[in-house]
Every structure is written in structure tokens, then in C-alpha cells.
Design goal:
- Chain A is α+β, with helices and mostly antiparallel strands and 147 residues long.
- Chain A has one domain (5-143): Thiol Ester Dehydrase, Chain A, CATH 3.10.129.
- The first copy, chain A, is 23% helix and 33% strand.
- Chain A contains 4 helices and 6 strands, in the order ββααααββββ.
- Chain A has helices spanning 23-33, 37-40, 42-45, 57-71, and strands spanning 13-15, 19-20, 80-87, 97-109, 116-126, 132-143.
- In chain A, strands 1, 2, 3, 4, 5 and 6 form a 6-stranded antiparallel β-sheet that branches.
- The longest helix of chain A has 15 residues, at 57-71.
- The first copy, chain A, is elongated and about 60 Å long.
Chain lengths: 147, 147
């Protein structure tokens, strides 16, 4: 069921199932997009700030997006993010079982264009010990129900 | 040459070479991390908000990180981002040749821990027509030169 602007209710929450991230996946992602020792090599990572292998924050973000798309609000026209505030309070580690908790923070109609509006979603990425790996507060484009 | 906190100068800029993004790469990334029609299928994308195939914002972000790591400031201990403000003013398209322009926005020592500080980097991702595809203003951890 596709959700239009009128269907979104502030405070609604969505909690995804868990997905496990492996060392091999961390290394493969980092090799392509974030080639730094603490993301590439468990041994080399020991002497870095992280003290061991850590996932690229962008890997955490990408996994989060998959969970948001599959298990977050099923917005008509898709999840279209304009931007937002991103924070990585702690690094994702090999073996982390990540899930996403999405909260509808605000919903507003556009003043200039009645066919659309905006929703702010708080997207928390947590491991199974409820350690916060990422917080993304994103402004999304949402369409009004066609008249 | 690794840069410590004392070496970073506000206003310094770094401009990366270009990297071309293909439709196949857009679809492969989205299949894994952002499975929505406008990122997966050029034909299906025509009737969406984007009007054609568009890269996931997280794909733009991941490519940006690679360019930042390789061609941005070579910070001692690596590029360690705590978070920041992310915006996608326009979507990356197949065939875009992306480059990154990094500007050192601010540098500050930690008040509580003299061994470290923070730098704010403005990271702009542009195509060859200078269209801004992503703006990321990131707070990074930077170490002071060991005494």
C-alpha cells in the first residue's frame, strides 16, 4: 500500500529485521569506495583509531538504505531524499547484526506546490546490543494523493 | 606526507580527477543497496520523479568518499568522519563524470584532549558541467602532531 502525504502520521515507527555484516563484506565495500587501512585489513586496523576492523560509514549508510527501502514507510513514488544530518556515533564492526528504526518526525505540505510535501524521517541504525551505529535525519519528498 | 592538525590550513582546496559513472554501475549499486525503480531500470524510471535512470544518493556518496580518500587532504591516521550535513541538490546520471572539490572550512583543537582536534571539510561533488550532485559538510577527527 503506497503512502501519500495525507497518510503519513508523525510518530509512526517502523523497525526492520536484522542483517549481519561480515568482515569480507566490509573489506569488499571499502576496497571499492573507502580504501583505508582500518576498513581493509583487520591486522593493520589494530594500530589505528578504531583498534580493529571497522566498516566504512558509507557501508553502514548503504545497508541502512536497503533496510529503509524494504521495511520503512512505503511512500508512493519511492523514498526520495533531499539530504539531511548524518552522524556515526560508533563504527559498525564485523558480525554486527544491524537493524533500522524509522520514525516519522514531521510532515508538511508544500506552500508553493499543492501536489507535494516533505516528510522528515529519523533513521536510526542499531546493532543487536542497541548500540547506535548511525543516525540519519532525512528530508524526503512526498507526493499528495492525486485528486 | 601525512597532515596533522597543525598542518591543516583553512581555505586550502583539493580538486580530484574525474570518474565516470555508468548505467551498469548505477544498477549494480542500487540492486545491492537501494532497490527502487528509478535506480534499477531506465525504462521504469521514465515515469518516476527523476524521469530517467538516476544513481542512488548513497552511490554518489560512496564515489565521493573514494575521491576524498585518494585526492583530498592526506590526514595522518586517515579520514575519520563523525558526521555532517548531506545534501543531494540533483541526481547523478549515467555518464556523469564526477569530481570532488574539498575545502578546509575550519580547524580546531580539542579543549579536553590536546592530542586531537577537529576539521570541518566541505566536500562538493560536481559533474563536468559543474552541476552540484552532492554537498557534504563533514566533521573529521584530526590528530595533533605527536610531541
Amino acid at each position: 500500500m503506497s503512502l501519500y502525504l495525507e497518510d503519513l502520521v508523525v510518530g509512526t515507527q517502523y523497525v526492520s529485521p536484522e542483517v549481519t555484516i561480515t568482515a569480507d563484506e566490509i573489506i569488499a565495500f571499502a576496497t571499492q569506495f573507502d580504501p583505508q587501512p582500518f576498513h581493509l585489513d583487520a591486522e593493520a586496523a589494530k594500530t589505528t583509531f578504531f583498534g580493529g576492523l571497522a566498516a566504512s560509514g558509507w557501508h553502514t549508510a548503504a545497508i541502512t538504505m536497503r533496510l529503509l527501502v524494504l521495511y520503512g514507510p512505503q511512500i508512493a513514488g519511492g523514498v526520495i531524499g533531499a539530504g539531511g544530518e548524518l552522524a556515526w556515533p560508533s563504527a559498525t564492526r564485523p558480525g554486527d547484526r544491524l537493524h533500522v528504526r524509522v520514525t516519522v518526525e514531521s510532515v508538511s505540505a508544500s506552500k508553493s506546490n499543492p501536489s507535494r510535501g516533505a516528510a522528515v524521517l529519523k533513521v536510526e541504525t542499531l546493532n543487536s546490543d542497541d548500540e547506535l551505529r548511525q543516525l540519519f535525519t532525512v528530508r524526503t519528498l512526498v507526493f499528495a494523493r492525486p485528486q
